[in-house]
Amino acid sequence: MKKCPKCKIRYNDLWYKCIMCHTKLVPKQKGVFLFKKRFYVNLEDPECLLGQLIEQANTLIIFSTPSGEALMCNEAVEFFTGYKRDEIFKQEWLDLLYKAQQARKEMFKAVMKGCLISIRSKTYEGAIFRKDGSECMLSWRLATIRGKKDKNLGLLCVAHDVTDRKITEDDINIHGQRVKDILSSIREYVLMTTNLEGKITYYGLGARNIFGWPADKVYLEDISLIYPKYNRSYIIKKISEEIQKNAKFEGEVKLLRKGDIEFPAILTITPLLNRDGQTIGYTYVGKDMTEKKKIERQMIQSEKMAAVGQLASGVAHEINNPLLVILGRLELLDVEKLSKGVVKTLNILKTQALRIRTIADRLLSYSKEKKPDIKPLDLTRLMKSITPLLGYYPEFKKILWKEEFQKGLPKVKGDFNQLQELFLNLGLNACQAMPGSGKVTIITRYDKGERFVEVLVKDTGEGMTDEQMQRLFDPFFSTKEKGTGLGLAVCRNIIERHKGNIEVESAVGKGTVFTIKLPVAD
Length: 522
Ligand code: ADP
Ligand code: MG
Fold this sequence. Notes:
By secondary structure, the protein is of the alpha+beta class. The protein has helices spanning 49-56, 76-81, 85-88, 93-98, 102-118, 163-185, 205-211, 215-218, 232-246, 290-332, 340-366, 379-384, 386-390, 394-397, 416-432, 466-471, 487-497, and strands spanning 2-3, 10-11, 32-35, 39-42, 60-64, 70-73, 122-129, 135-146, 152-161, 189-195, 200-203, 249-257, 261-273, 279-288, 375-377, 400-405, 412-414, 439-445, 452-459, 501-507, 511-519. A hairpin with a 5-residue loop joins strand 5 (60-64) and strand 6 (70-73).
């Protein structure tokens, strides 16, 4: 401990003036800094505690005048900036550290000014330039030092190097952004996340594309909205059981898109984990299988058709010749000479022989032998010709038949007889699907500019199961006692030859809608 030379009071390293007699205790000399006129800091004096603290700190410390002149700086300055202490001391240090980067310098100065005005300490992050021109990212803390009467003595500027952290942060940001970009550019897959309560927390572009709802509509909605309403609870139960058992779900499910349209999809649900491995929600990845299923079905169908087609035409030809003989002979018989019982039997034979001929005809028309004679057709006239033909069938008499034909339809490209057969088949099937009573509605419609005219054949009949729907167009598939199972197979061929399209929607117990698209004539 040193003693004041005048009043002999002991003083410590931090004193500049004696607190009793105000004798100056430390001579003014280079490297000695007077702090609040009371404490002195001598960075070079090994006995000055404060000086040593500042000197040994591995943070950059500059004490600057409000105008930006460096009054003091510690040794770390040399390490951080590459300048010798003498180069900075008493200099406009910001000019050195920011070189030509005027904008950055102004920014720092603004922070300094803010600090001086508000008297609050401030933090700031920014790069300075070392003497060798390289950049050093510093995190600053600035504090005003006030003297008597609140006079601003200057600013204490303390900084540490955050270059490495900044690089890592930038890397993470770039990486994160890249992952985000990748995720949000996936259009073909549903990508979603939910929280533990099953509320949607992420809904990517693919999901928007496939489900059709906008993101803001869906955000924080319950995930159950993606499942068809009729088996929602069943699906959710099944999925949660599976997740409990195997920690994930993977399978083919029916999902629901905007407009209550169901579609087949492959769905994978996996837990979403946080850094500590805790489950914080679920990730949903799904693929819309509509197109694939359709193509698969078409492939199977066309293979089957080709095989069955060949067989059918062969059989039809073989049957036709003996059938012609039977029918010819039946015609030639002189019935007046025969007994009533025999005539009755012969009539039955004739009816059945004619039925065989119908089947043979259908087989032939199925086997693609008939080339369509395609001309521009008036579709309304064609549709109006169906009811007189249907009138021959007893099923038609029991039902209500409604026609909603749009006016001014363009002509379609088609073969009149074949299209008549097509709609007769569909109309008859609709009537047959409603034992007892029901309503069939035939709708024609066309949107300006479209390439196809649509015809809808709607019934309120028994509908079909999924399994029936899959086999509907298969030749010989029939659920009717006297059905041939060829009607729709023929329809499909006709549609194919017309380069049109046929689609079915059906619900058991509710009814069925066949939608036929026919190309507009040029
Ligand atoms: P068929 O009428 O001789 O049975 P189709 O090829 O015309 O043969 O039809 C095949 C099957 O498709 C039918 O047996 C029936 O099960 C089903 N089907 C066709 N149309 C309908 C409909 N409108 N409503 C319900 N089921 C239908
Ligand atoms: Mg039929």
